[in-house]
Amino acid sequence: MPPPRPLLAAAAAALLFLLLPVHLALAEAEGFRGFSYLLNCGAAFPITDSRGLRWEPDGPYVSAGTPGEPTIPGPGSLLEPTLATLRTFPNRPRAKFCFELPVDKNRRYLLRPTFFYGAFSSSAPPPPAFDLIVDGTFWTAINTTDDALAGAASSYEGVFPASGRNLSFCLGVNPEYTDAGPFISALQVIQLDDSVYNATNFNTSAMGLIARTRFGSTGDIERYPDDSFDRYWQPFPDSKHAVSSTQNVTSADFWNLPPPNVFNTAFIAEQDAPLVLQWPPMPLQNDSYYVALYFADTLPENSRTFNVYINDYLFIEGLNVTSAGLSVFATQWILSGLTSVMLKPVSPSALPPLINAGEVFGLFPVGRLTYARDVRAMESIKESLRNVPEDWNGDPCMPSEYSWTGVTCDEGSRIRVISLNFSGMGLSGSLSPEIANLTALTNISFAHNSLVGGIPDLSNLSKLERL
């Protein structure tokens, strides 16, 4: 389905040519700037990988789960030490188990969880499938079976806004998938520069990576330290169209700050012929996508002009590519099924078109969050109690199918906590007076627990019907 006219106009307005310079801050070898995390899940001690990155144990950031090791370590664990351990969580239907990470509010973060259950055969039970949740947003369902059969790890990447002082990354137990609890091997949370992907409205949308490609490359994945945010640029070989060059492209001239090396390989069309790519290499569901393409002429002090089409619809007309490099992108471009990218020369005598790299992200809505005062009250209640359920992390209400055990919410104009049913949960400790701030409560039950202290003043709870 082609982009409708209004969306096509909006996409064209979002296409940028030479982007204004921005400052590029290279990450230090020992880590990343700002609130960024490299967590080796299930590990007892820090490790340093072959790139000089230090991975910390995940224990300080998660209150549930059991450290362990893959069932049958694969060869990848010898190359990636973070695959040698994992953390597993209980099989409690509709429970979510969260990592709580301090962040800078109103910044955006790249999240990359990695999963390696262990190498196994087709006759063995498959790895668990489960949901990923960030704050109150459902991200995606995880199924690592195909990768595990090949003895490989599975990684997912998304870009999310930080709406508060903490970011919650959660694994949700979905009983519709399997009858086993979730697991995780490693988690990266990397703060991005303000310019990176800033054309997306992160008040309403988050981004999930579909493909990030370096055309013409036959080498390894391009990542940190070449990419200062450790984004993975996958090689895309094609001996017929691939060329290499040594460019002097300055990444700081691009809002998305791609690594300079992605401009040193390219696909170039044959003379007087278009260049046609099936990319990304997998079919896509009918939806809006963020598409970014990167270009730099392989000849010094040279330029070439061509048109770019996606699924036979004009993406950008008269693109003039020089050796200095440029980027074009659309924030909402409709794609469906297999995607065809065509670069077509503007005239038979023109130099053939080329392309160096590309990114495609799926867009999905950012979930609503529980009313902030209710969240603070629930956190205070949690702190004053003992033996609380392991899933009392992340947003108390959202996503709605993953609310805290014993908590019922109403999704009106504000998401409010309306019922606390903690009967027989084995709780001890005392009841925080902050419960009086849950002014939408209609029902409270703390029967058959071992609480001490007085009952707080509940006179503010005008809607309370049962205590």
Automatic annotation (TrEMBL):
The Leucine-rich repeat-containing N-terminal plant-type domain is annotated at 373-410
N-terminal signal peptide: 1-27
Q: Name one GO cellular component term.
A: membrane
Topological type in the membrane: Single-pass membrane protein
- Give the source species: Digitaria exilis
Q: Which UniProt keywords apply?
A: Leucine-rich repeat, Repeat, Signal
The protein's name in its UniProt record: Malectin-like domain-containing protein
Gene3D superfamilies, A to Z: Galactose-binding lectin, Ribonuclease Inhibitor
Question: Which part of the chain is the Malectin-like domain?
Answer: 39-361
Cellular localization per UniProt? Membrane
